[in-house]
Amino acid sequence: MPSLDSSFRVLFETNMGIRSGESVLVFSDRIRPDESPSKDDRDRRKRLNDTARQVAGFANDTYNNGQFVDFPATAASGVEPPQVLWEATFGRAIMGQLQRAGLLDDILDKQASAEQLAEARRIVLGHAADVPRIIIAMSNNSTSHTSYRRLACHAGARFASLPHFDPEMFGTSMNVDWPALADRTARLVEAVNRAEWVYVECPNGTAMHICKRGRDAGGDDGLLTAPGSFGNLPAGEAYFAPLEGESHGVMVIEWGPTRKLEQPITLTIADGKVVRIDGNDLHRTKLEARFAESEACRNLAELGIGTNDKASRPDNVLEAEKIMGTIHLALGDNTGFGGKTAAPFHEDYVFYQPTVTLVMADGSREIILDEGKLMV
């Protein structure tokens, strides 16, 4: 691969706003022996791990403070990462207190109560200086929707999440006019926040009524310079957690995280959760296994709208969900951005050429996407 030093510099200095003396942690994951990724995906994941090591090395050489950790991949995005990463991130004092308080096992199992999580936040905040100021998450499976990530941000870490990342993205969706993307995203967030309901229709048969009542939309613009900030890279979306128990409709899934499905899968949504699956693609088996693991995995967790004009590839969900003019709908956990459903799973599905209509409290309507064209 050609040198990516200039891209790494933009990552640290533009996206993360690194300051003199700040500590950096970069982590990745390894393919487990029981996994069977395709040849292409195995190659991408190896390059992802190699690139993560290069990012940590660049941080160490350039800013004199870079650390790298890797570990066997978790079972799915949204699963808490293993203890080795917690130890590298939080240090002995925090980890010791979490264990003595009997909190760590419940947090790792996603069984911690609100009171337990509040106590964990108090412990972490008491030793916030022990936590790296910048965390670059380059594991294949996402840690975005985990207590690990939320506690790190609570301590003031600036956290960039790059699940399913392909190093080739440094030349495409990462090579974007960041201020322009931030402005576009902010305007879209402002529009979405006027709505109580959002209606989505796509040519493939997807038709969803999504309840936004009482929920605030946020924007992922890739400028992670404030203490405790968090977002994806590549960035570019407006998003919110639908109000649980209200949304309904049909999702016709044509693309999985890294491939086009051989046959579409149709999910029927009622009362904010999946109540029926139709279709015979192998991805159905994966979903059914997640639903059997926890009913919370059925939750309609997110609606997002892409705003990145340099994103284009549909076969990688990290970039696909940022393509300007697409939408994505997620299932599972949404506790990290305003929802109330904790689940050991969060997976996004991207939909093309959507028409998105906002419905306001007074019944007025505004189309913000018209067959994939951004109208805001």
Walkthrough of the structure:
- A hairpin with a 4-residue loop joins β10 and β11 (260-270).
- This protein has nine helices and 18 strands.
- The chain is α+β, with helices and mostly antiparallel strands and 376 residues long.
- The protein is 29% helix and 26% strand.
- It has helices at residues 5-15, 39-63, 83-100, 104-108, 114-126, 147-154, 178-192, 283-293, 317-320; strands at 24-30, 66-72, 134-137, 158-161, 197-201, 207-211, 218-220, 230-232, 237-240, 248-255, 260-270, 273-278, 300-306, 327-332, 346-351, 355-359, 365-370, 373-374.
- α3 (83-100) packs across α5 and α5 (114-126) packs across α6.
- The strands form three sheets. Strands 12-11-10-6-5-16-17-18 form an eight-stranded antiparallel sheet, with helices on one face.
- The model has no long low-confidence stretch (mean pLDDT 96).
- It folds into two domains: 5-170, no CATH class; 177-374, no CATH class.
